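mind reviewing these tokens:
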Amino acid sequence: MIRNHSLKIIASILSACLLALFLPACGKRNATNGAAGDFALLKEKGTLNVLTLSGSMSYFIYKGEPKGYEYELLSDFAEHHQLRLQIKRAENEEQLVRMLLKKEGDLIAYNLPVTNEGKAAIRYAGREVVNRQVLVQRAGKDDTPLRDVTELVGKEVWVMHDTKYARRLENLNAELGGGIRIRTVDRDTVSTEDLIEQVARGEIPYTLSDVDLAKLNKTYFHSLHISLVVSHPQRSSWAVRKSSPELAAALNEWFAGNKNDTRYRAIIKRYFEMSKMPGDEPAPVLGNGRISPYDSFFKQYARTIDWDWRLLVSIAFQESKFHTGAISWAGATGLMGLMPRTAEAMGITPEETTQAEPSIRAAVRLIRRLNRSFASIADEAERIRFILAAYNAGASHIYDAQALAVKYGKNPAVWEDHVEEYLKLKSVPEYYNDPVVKQGYFRGTETINYVRSVWERWEYYKQLKIEE
């Protein structure tokens, strides 16, 4: 299972070492020379070069800002030691280790399996976790969740082909004497998170996931039951080179001393507890010719970009439900859901993000900028869809999706069934590791739903007899 997968990694590591004895991790003399003062030298340099993989747990870009559970923990460590972060992404675990040994980074901030073979080549340090695989199943009012693995006999479970989940399910089936109806998916357009979403929507009955990934996805889909453990404990950890004992010690010390820190707890809450569902409240109408408490501001600023003011209202409701003090899990703030760096770039202070008029003013400046970015899209309705998508995801992810659309023969100027299809595929390694993609992993389904919701609410508002 995980051990077999790790052996592939270690084989790659040892091959690299045999072919390149000059590497510090494999050369005893260099390791000895680097044993004293490695972290002091790194701090003197002032930059921590970090290797990681794109993913919802590790590292991704959201609305132009870096996010990810591993990334935020890493950022706290770097800030504590006054280090700048330089992130370099790899495509898989094997490449992560090779890059570390070739000194392309100082640290792997990604949970590698802990094995005796690995200990011979690299030094595990920092965030060590004990993970387990769990059964992901629905927990709606009409569902009866399974409570014991023996109940899987006769049940249909879907997993990705040739993954640790597929291997664990095969072993579990053998342990139970057979009877689990294993369904594997080998398409390169589907990820484990896609299978979790399909379970949440009732399209498939069961899948497997690491418990942390399951917890993260439960914040998007509340109707999931994830408490049935189906595997043995699996240790994993960050890693450094053998020649970096002081960096390893600094990481270990920081994690040991910050597990109960309020900032550490806040990071856990953002990723594993705060709901990321947009909510399903109906679009409100205040009456007396008003849609929102801020119609006058929406009308005023919509005229400056020649937009229907009701479209701005629809964006505001989607972002904040008209609450000027709203703050999302990612830190998007205020009536218009602006990220801190975006708000600053659009000319308003952090205090002004919680005020209606400055928030609308800054949002309109952003929309004007996005309109220029997608000026090559001649059809106005199409261009608006692209602007809405970029407002939610950040323009760079939309550029990536356009590049993929071009590569695979779709129209980069058409949203539905063209660019949106490839934005969704940016959650699949085959696509977010594609050379034409610059920003890596992204959870595109959320943006596709965002565009659809804002557009439908706008159409609803236009049907109302409200003074324009």
In short: The longest strand covers residues 123-131. Residues 2-129+235-272 form a domain with the D-Maltodextrin-Binding Protein; domain 2 fold (CATH 3.40.190.10). The chain has 20 helices and twelve strands.
